[in-house]
Amino acid sequence: AQSLTAVRSTKGQAYARSVARLGLQAAEALDYAHRAGIVHRDIKPANLLLDAHGNLWITDFGLAQFYTETGVTRSGDMLGTLRYMSPEQASGRAVVLDQRTDVYSLGVTLYELLTLERALPGETHEQLLYQHGYGEPRPPRSIDKTIPRELEVILVKAIGKDPADRYQSAGALAEDLRRFLHDEPILARPPSMWDKTIKWTRRHRSLALSAVTVLLLAAVGLLVSTLLIAREQAKTRAAYVGERDRAIEASQQRTRAERGLKHARDIVDFLSRVAADELADKPSSADVRREMLEASLDYYQGFIDEYKDQPAIGGELAAARARVANILGELSAFDEFSRASTRASLLFEPSVGEALGFSADQLHAVQQAAGDVLDKVADPRDLRTMPSAQKREIYTALAGHIETTLEQSLSPRQLIRLREISRQVRGPSAFSDPDIIEVLALTPDQKDAIRMVQTEFRASLRETFRQRGPGGVVGSNAPGGPPPTSGPGSPGSRSQPSVEETQLREQAVQEIVAQLTPSQEKTWSNLVGARFTGAVRYRERSFGYGGAGGGSRGRPGPRTSTPQPP
Predict the structure, then answer these.
(1) What is the CA radius of gyration of the chain?
(2) Helix axes 13-35, 99-115, angle to 10 degrees
(3) 21: buried, middle or exposed (CB in 10 Å: 19+, 13-18, 0-12)?
(4) Residues whose CB falls within 8 Å of the CB of residue 383, separated by 6 or more in sequence, listed in order
(5) CB within 8 A of 440, min separation 6: which ones?
(6) Position 26 confidence tier, pLDDT thresholds 50, 70, 90
(7) Residue 476 has pLDDT above 80, yes or no
(8) pLDDT value at position 198?
(9) pTM of the shown model
């Protein structure tokens, strides 16, 4: 021991690395035995022999057993050397001894070789048993500061009292020793303060339970005394507050009315500025704009009910509510117009004409009629400067004109089939149509779930367009992309949706249908009719209201831009 002490004090780091190399050889040898199914169960300094060439040998496998032998699960017998055996081995309880018991014994042996002190300093049988259950070896660096911190972390992990805290195999211990010798980062990490607290609690369960019990009793006592004091204070305060409230009740009512009015005006100003002005030129924000406006309607109605006895305030709130209702009416009218124009635009798709059974002459006549009505969509006036009520009238009139033209140009069967195809092509957006919502009798929860699917679908489309670049989406539907180089009917004004876009649309429809009841699902199947498999140059309008199709109409020749959504 004196010679080892001299070597350790003079060589420091070199001595620690020598110990690590010996530990690496022992760990590799144990790993080989473990992989063969053998547990040594008596690793200690006396069973580790070093030859003249510096090779380490593990001897005395007299207590070793195979994993499959019944002796591995112990029932109170104690085999091995108590100072070096693992806590579970020394406990005398019926436990399964696996390779981790050898990892512990090797760690304690290396600890003793590195520090030249016992990991468990007890001398008697009782002292060692107590230290196995409740004691912790001193940190190696508290004995010798020259011991590398990484090597200390490795040893502390190897001699963890709980098998789950140790290296799970001798191979893992060997790997960390090899990393240490090669100056690579080790895999083990030093225990945190929380880990140390948990381990201490496990070792001192009764003491920890007593401390928690005392703290709980103290907390309960403090809470009870606080409640008693608070109750007496509340009685005194209630008497005072009651008199004060009766004296200033009239003043508080006026203050509350003025505060409520100011708050209502602030909400009106905010919603009016954001929803009616700032979001008006951003079609992608249509859903947010509609939700803000609908919420404001409920808010105003609540204030109107509360201040119905104050005509001045109620009149101002009713006027603000009417303004918001007009904007929502404008949005609804635009949605109706957009759906109608989408159906008319589908008539320029050859696959749709074939599905409707048009002859060549009828197809030409229908397309001519549809083109004429779509040309009337162009409006030289700036709709954005019009009042909401006027824009609503324009959109409603345009939608009605389109529907009338379609009814006059198509047979009832063709008109029904066109609507079915339009719903299929529009996919998830069709579930926002008022007639669909009414026929399916959607519940509020179903509406919320459908709205969420639609939002995710539009976000996926935007991401698809972004990844494909400005050239991936041609025309007005491409955010940031160049405008069409020719008329709406020219090649390139619209492109065939990609397979990915089609899959996204079909997946979104499936997710929405999954939210429906069996009867609702059957109704939806009747609304969309037989599956339409024709090619349509239609893109989900992910940046418009309700997802209605936009872009070119398929009409030959240049046209002015269509009215923009409010």
Answers:
(1) 41
(2) 160
(3) middle
(4) 391, 394, 563, 564, 566
(5) 431, 516, 520, 523, 524
(6) very high
(7) no
(8) 63
(9) 0.44
- Mean pLDDT score, 192-208: 63
Q: What is the rounded distance in angstroms from the CA atom of residue 363 to the CA atom of residue 265?
A: 56
Strand partners, 48: 58
DSSP element (H, E) containing 50? strand 48-50
Q: Is the confidence at residue 210, as pLDDT, over 70?
A: yes
Report yes or no: 536 and 346 within 8 Å, Cβ to Cβ: yes
Q: What is the 3-state secondary structure (H, E, C) of 122-156?
A: CCCHHHHHHHHHHCCCCCHHHHCCCCCHHHHHHHH
pLDDT digits (tens, 9 = 90+) for 402-449: 888 888 888 899 889 988 988 888 889 889 888 899 999 999 999 999
Question: Which residue has tokens 């798709």?
Answer: 349
- The H-or-E segment that residue 66 falls in is strand 65-66
User: In this predicted model, which residue has the larger pLDDT, 504 or 284?
Assistant: 504
Identify the H or E element spanning 110.
helix 99-115
Q: Which of 82, 72, 44 is nearest to 60 (CA)?
A: 44
pLDDT tens for 82-140 read: 889 888 888 776 667 889 999 999 999 999 999 999 988 888 888 888 888 788 899 99
Q: What is the three-class DSSP state of 49?
A: strand
Contact 110, 19 (CB under 8 A): yes
Residue 268 tokens, joined: 């009106």
CB neighbours (10 Å) of residue 10? 9
CB atoms inside a 10 Å sphere around CB 503: 12
How far, in Å, CA of 169 to CA of 34, rounded?
A: 8
Among 110, 111, 167, CA closest to 139: 111
